[in-house]
Amino acid sequence: MKSKGDLKEEKISILLLKYSIPAILAMMVTSMYNTVDRAFIGSIKDVGALAISGLGVTMPLFTILGAFCVGIAIGGSTNISIKLGEGNKEDAEKILGSTVALEVSVAIVIMLVGMFFLEDILYVFGASSETINYAKDYMSVIFFGSWFNLPGFALNSAIRAEGNPKLAANMMIISCVLNLVLDPIFIFVFNMGIKGAAIGTIMCQLLVCIWSVYYFTLGKSNLKLKAKNIKIKKKFFKAIILIALTPFFMELASGFIHLVTNRVLKTYGGDLAIGAMTTITSIYLIFLMPVFGISQGMQTIIAYNYGAQEHNRAKSALLMSMIAGLIILGIGFILIQTIPHNLVAIFTNNSELSNIAINGIKIYTVMLPSIGISILGAVYFQSIGSAKVSVVLSLLRQVIILIPVITILPRLYGLNGVWASQPISDLLAMAIVCIFLINEFKKEKYKKKVLS
């Protein structure tokens, strides 16, 4: 593992490659897993279309779970990077312990909620009598695995924050490849259906957890996970939550919009429209995952340099990341618009479901290239500790703008109005994020002049 001093001295372009490529690879493998996983589910004999619709019903709940998992993990890892930038290793280790304690506490609550209220929640989220059993089979297993999934994810994020992004990525890649092997075994060989896909998922999450705990206890880590630090201390709890709010609300917003969208889809297109949205978002995420990988690499660089008062380097990391995101999403836009039939065919061979998904994805992704600016801009404010601004910007395209649009537009244009709501929200969100970034850069320039 190289010195954290590299984050302050090495070229930003080199750092972005070093920190982002492993994260991008991990994200791409995760996306590939999701793609193959849903393709397996969609191909289950006689029930594939309903099974993938059932999986679509679980998406709001899945993203709410992810909100806690990702939010706390990023809150912890960002604070760890800032403390290491300040040269305060002792507090970085305490934050690591507090992050794990917080994730475990949340996981226990989630397991209890899932144990007693899962079926009722799924009906609220759009399940029907035909899809409820598929949704319940999947989420009951996922909820059971939360007690090791949440702390495992937080520790993996901390590995990247302490300066070992390659190992963090390798863990995710190996677990996802293993998942690809286990899924068809549990689904088809053991004839466990959609529940088998969930079992394969949590087994791989357990691997990441065990591996990460080993690294921070007996491995060659810079920071150590000490038993005395695994407790929720008020000082560090506040610091973690402050930064965690942005990714938490981003994920929570995603879950909420899934809930709203599922209900609108059910009204204007029925269960198959929900299945079509599951297919669309699966394809959509294939191209967004690299941008999320870039944001993870960028976040470490920005947080460290901001903590070290190297604001120009932090700004350069953002601008370079945005250019890379624009290129990746631009390629995705071209592929989706030119070969939508081929992409949708990966997930279903049901002609009715395919036709709905093909029409939907061509509308849904019209503003795809702009999304990187919105995502990375919000992460920039998160990384420099501007939690309130970051939360607002993160909620723009998924809640503040999208909810009113998706409530009104389908009344005028039916199902096409549902698909068109997202690109309208994306365009407006991008414009607002750009205004905030320009103002922030002007303030930083002014502060620099005053200090000099």
From TrEMBL:
<feature type="transmembrane region" description="Helical">
    <location>
        <begin position="239"/>
        <end position="260"/>
    </location>
</feature>
<feature type="transmembrane region" description="Helical">
    <location>
        <begin position="12"/>
        <end position="30"/>
    </location>
</feature>
<dbReference type="GO" id="GO:0046677">
    <property type="term" value="P:response to antibiotic"/>
</dbReference>
<keyword id="KW-0472">Membrane</keyword>
<feature type="transmembrane region" description="Helical">
    <location>
        <begin position="138"/>
        <end position="155"/>
    </location>
</feature>
<feature type="transmembrane region" description="Helical">
    <location>
        <begin position="393"/>
        <end position="413"/>
    </location>
</feature>
<comment type="similarity">
    <text>Belongs to the multi antimicrobial extrusion (MATE) (TC 2.A.66.1) family. MepA subfamily.</text>
</comment>
<dbReference type="InterPro" id="IPR051327">
    <property type="entry name" value="MATE_MepA_subfamily"/>
</dbReference>
<dbReference type="Pfam" id="PF01554">
    <property type="entry name" value="MatE"/>
</dbReference>
<protein>
    <recommendedName>
        <fullName>Multidrug export protein MepA</fullName>
    </recommendedName>
</protein>
<keyword id="KW-1003">Cell membrane</keyword>
<feature type="transmembrane region" description="Helical">
    <location>
        <begin position="356"/>
        <end position="381"/>
    </location>
</feature>
<feature type="transmembrane region" description="Helical">
    <location>
        <begin position="50"/>
        <end position="74"/>
    </location>
</feature>
<dbReference type="GO" id="GO:0042910">
    <property type="term" value="F:xenobiotic transmembrane transporter activity"/>
</dbReference>
<dbReference type="GO" id="GO:0005886">
    <property type="term" value="C:plasma membrane"/>
</dbReference>
<feature type="transmembrane region" description="Helical">
    <location>
        <begin position="272"/>
        <end position="295"/>
    </location>
</feature>
<keyword id="KW-0046">Antibiotic resistance</keyword>
<feature type="transmembrane region" description="Helical">
    <location>
        <begin position="196"/>
        <end position="218"/>
    </location>
</feature>
<dbReference type="InterPro" id="IPR002528">
    <property type="entry name" value="MATE_fam"/>
</dbReference>
<feature type="transmembrane region" description="Helical">
    <location>
        <begin position="316"/>
        <end position="336"/>
    </location>
</feature>
<keyword id="KW-1133">Transmembrane helix</keyword>
<keyword id="KW-0812">Transmembrane</keyword>
<dbReference type="InterPro" id="IPR045070">
    <property type="entry name" value="MATE_MepA-like"/>
</dbReference>
<feature type="transmembrane region" description="Helical">
    <location>
        <begin position="167"/>
        <end position="190"/>
    </location>
</feature>
<keyword id="KW-0813">Transport</keyword>
<dbReference type="InterPro" id="IPR048279">
    <property type="entry name" value="MdtK-like"/>
</dbReference>
<dbReference type="GO" id="GO:0015297">
    <property type="term" value="F:antiporter activity"/>
</dbReference>
<feature type="transmembrane region" description="Helical">
    <location>
        <begin position="419"/>
        <end position="439"/>
    </location>
</feature>
<feature type="transmembrane region" description="Helical">
    <location>
        <begin position="95"/>
        <end position="118"/>
    </location>
</feature>
